[in-house]
């Protein structure tokens, strides 16, 4: 099959590379100039979207923000996966997304939207508890404060730095954080769903700055036994059906004794959850993407129903800080042939001598993935690659096995289904 990846920052280049390994004809186009050099020597790339491409080409998007383009391409007869105006709205307009959760019967923490820094600062100063900051359009990394003074200082720093003000301040809810994903074919969702635990802090014991992802673990969800599904993402099904939504959608939530609290949607491939999920697939990735691009009914999602996929992200300084480019040309050595299927690369390229090197940009090198019967064994396999790779100044967490095992024990105690509640969305916000 022929595929075209349309990418904003190159996050999905690892998907393109997997498709090439399966024998497909793949090209990619990347919008952000900072990552234009990613995957040089590894993937064929074109400078911009070329609508002279053959109609049999399957086009897929790896991030939010390209919904209008995706729908225009569908209207021109192309098979397109993972992009829509509705998907963009779910991720990039947090106020509307929280309203849709409430319409669906998912409880959400009290939140308030702001479009100027002084109003947000005033709100934080008057608030007695902890707040979470979440930027619309992903302009600024989310931030969880330690208290009111901490949030006020954070907001003043963003104002001083001239950052655009378009954000939510949400009350902090204590509990177990978990993401639950389903794949929707326009009418219904495929079984099984999957869960993800993720850690964002750069260093062990949740010390250091928050990053895009430091590591995660993924497993199939037996929904009939799980209140996280029943009180969370499954309540969105009528709304997804109303919009004829096609693709994956993840609900990030907090679970505590008061129930399941919806936080945000990820209506796209998640990084690094999707790389870890690749190790669990029982079908080829190309077949999976093609089914959703063509609008086929997909009642079965092809992943192993027992065991755990895992990933550990390996980076170099100044990651996770993005205002300064990471060094370009650092050699990435000591990977063996068997690592190829378990290496999802980001800011890398292949030089003329066949040496894999860092491409600069953000300093995200790779997530090393694995699959195991239990969490410890799956994480241990990732660590084995991360420890072996020869990479100057590499940085990664070494405590994720014990961290995720503890979280999983807490999860098992929390998933008992509560008495069913008859909640039907009114669809008043979805038109």
Structural features, described:
This protein is an alpha+beta fold and 431 residues long. It has three domains: 2-90, Rossmann fold (3-Layer(aba) Sandwich); 110-171, Dna Ligase, domain 1, CATH 3.30.1490.20; 176-414, D-amino Acid Aminotransferase, Chain A, domain 1. It is built from twelve helices and 20 strands. The strands form four sheets. It has an eight-stranded antiparallel sheet. Strand 4 (58-61), helix 2 and strand 5 (79-81) form a beta-alpha-beta unit. The protein is globular and about 60 Å long. The mean pLDDT is 93.
Write the layout of secondary structure elements.
Blueprint: E1 2-7, H1 13-21, E2 25-30, E3 44-45, E4 58-61, H2 67-75, E5 79-81, H3 85-92, H4 94-104, E6 111-114, H5 117-126, E7 131-135, E8 143-144, H6 148-160, E9 167-171, E10 176-185, E11 193-203, E12 207-221, H7 227-230, H8 237-242, E13 246-256, E14 259-266, H9 273-278, H10 285-294, E15 308-315, E16 328-331, E17 343-345, E18 348-350, E19 356-359, E20 364-372, H11 375-388, H12 400-414
Parallel strand pairs: 1-2, 1-4, 2-3, 4-5
Antiparallel strand pairs: 6-9, 7-8, 7-9, 10-11, 10-13, 11-12, 12-15, 13-14, 15-20, 16-19, 17-20, 18-19
Helix pairs in contact: 2-3, 5-6, 11-12
């Amino acid at each position: 099959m022929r595929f075209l990846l349309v990418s904003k920052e190159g996050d999905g280049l690892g998907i393109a590379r997997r498709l090439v390994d399966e024998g497909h004809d793949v090209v990619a186009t990347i919008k952000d100039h900072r990552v234009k050099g990613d995957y040089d020597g590894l993937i064929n790339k074109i400078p911009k979207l070329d609508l002279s491409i053959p109609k049999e080409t399957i086009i897929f998007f790896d991030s939010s923000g390209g919904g209008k383009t995706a729908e225009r391409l569908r209207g021109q007869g192309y098979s397109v996966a993972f992009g829509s105006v509705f998907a963009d709205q779910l991720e990039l307009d947090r106020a509307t997304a929280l309203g849709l959760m409430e319409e669906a019967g998912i409880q959400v923490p009290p939140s308030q939207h702001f479009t100027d820094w002084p109003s947000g600062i005033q709100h934080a100063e008057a608030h007695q508890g902890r707040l979470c900051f979440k930027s619309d359009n992903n302009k600024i990394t989310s931030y969880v404060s330690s208290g009111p003074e901490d949030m006020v200082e954070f907001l003043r720093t963003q104002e001083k730095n001239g950052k655009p003000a378009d954000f939510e301040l949400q009350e902090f809810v204590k509990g177990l954080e978990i993401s639950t994903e389903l794949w929707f074919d326009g009418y219904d969702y495929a079984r099984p769903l999957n869960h993800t635990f993720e850690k964002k802090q750069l260093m062990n014991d949740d010390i250091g700055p928050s990053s895009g992802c430091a590591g995660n673990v993924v497993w199939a969800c037996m929904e009939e036994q799980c209140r996280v599904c029943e009180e969370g993402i499954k309540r969105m099904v009528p709304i997804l059906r109303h919009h004829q939504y096609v693709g994956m959608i993840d609900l990030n939530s907090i679970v505590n004794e008061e129930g399941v609290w919806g936080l945000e949607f990820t209506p796209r491939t998640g990084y690094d959850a999707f790389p870890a999920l690749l190790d669990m697939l029982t079908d080829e990735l190309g077949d999976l993407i093609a089914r959703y691009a063509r609008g086929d009914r997909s009642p079965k999602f092809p992943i192993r129903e027992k065991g755990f996929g895992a990933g550990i992200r390996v980076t170099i300084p100044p990651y996770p800080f993005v205002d300064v480019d990471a060094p370009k040309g650092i050699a990435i050595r000591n990977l063996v042939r068997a690592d190829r299927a378990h290496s999802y690369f980001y800011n890398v390229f292949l030089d003329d001598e066949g040496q894999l090197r860092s491409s600069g940009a953000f300093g995200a090198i790779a997530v090393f993935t694995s699959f195991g019967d239990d969490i410890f064994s799956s994480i241990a396999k990732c660590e084995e690659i991360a420890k072996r790779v020869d990479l100057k100044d590499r940085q990664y967490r070494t405590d994720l096995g014990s961290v995720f095992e503890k979280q999983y024990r807490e999860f098992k105690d929390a998933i008992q289904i509560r008495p069913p509640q008859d909640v039907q969305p009114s669809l008043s916000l979805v038109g």
